[in-house]
Amino acid sequence: MDKSVFLEDLDAFAYREALASGEAIVLIPVGSLEQHGPHLPLGTDTILSSHFAEGVARRLGALVAQPIAYGYKSQQKSGGGNHLPGTVSLDGATLIGVARNLVKSFLNQGVRHVVFINGHFENYQFLYEGIDLALEDLGIKPGAEQSGLLLSYWDFVSEQTLKEVYPGGFPGWDIEHGGVLETSLMLHLEPARVAMDRLVDGPAAVLPRFDRLPVVPERTPATGCLSSAAGSSAAKGGLLYGQVVRDLAVDLGSELLHEPAPAVVPA
Ligand code: ZN
Ligand code: MN
Fold it and tell me: How far is 56 from 251, CA to CA, in rounded Å?
C-alpha cells in the first residue's frame, strides 16, 4: 500500500518529521452534511472534497487533515435550502470559529501553508474569514512565509471539460446541486455509494434572482436536487476528477513549492 497522506494515519513522530522540514503543507477538506436527493449520500460534499485533497496531496507531497464534515447552512439557490431533512448545518460564526482554530493550530505547530479544499458552495466566505482572523491572532502579516489558502474545487473545471461533461450546454454552477457534476464524480470515486436506480429525472429548478427568508419551499424541486443528474457517468467523473486534480496541483505547486521568482528590476 502507498504511504498514506492522511494525518489520521500518521503517528506523532512521523508528523514531527514532516514539520521539521519547515515546508509542510496541510490540506483540509471542507464539506457538509446535506441532502443530495434520493441517489447520493448526505456526505457527498465531504466525500468529494476529501478525494480532491487526497489526489492533490499525492502530487504535492502534502498532508490531508481530518475534514470539516459540517458546513454553513444550505441556501435554497445553491443547495435546496436548510429546511430539508438530512441537512444539518453550522451557524456562520461557528464555521468561522472552527476554521480559525484549525488554521491557528496548524500554523502554530510549524506547518507552512494550510489550504482549505472546499466542496460545499455556502462555506467559502466563512472559511476566508476564519483564515483572516487566525492570521491576525498570530500576527502574520503580508510577506510572511506562512499562509492560509482556500479554493472550491469546481473553480478548477476547465471550459474544455465542461463542454465534454455537458454536451447540451452547462446549466450553471448555482444549480449543480445533486446534478451531473457531483453524481458523475461519485460514480467515478465511490460507485458503491450511488443509487442510480433511485435517480429522478426532472426539469432544473427555476429560482428568483433574490434570496428570500424564510424560503418558499415549493421553489426547491421535490427531489431536493436543483438540476437533473440524468446523463451522469463514471467516465465523466473520471474526466472531471483527473483534470481538476492536475490543474489544482499545478497551481498550488507553482505557488507553494518554489520561492517566488525575483521581481524583474529594470537596469
Ligand atoms: Zn453537494
Ligand atoms: Mn453542498
Answer: 10
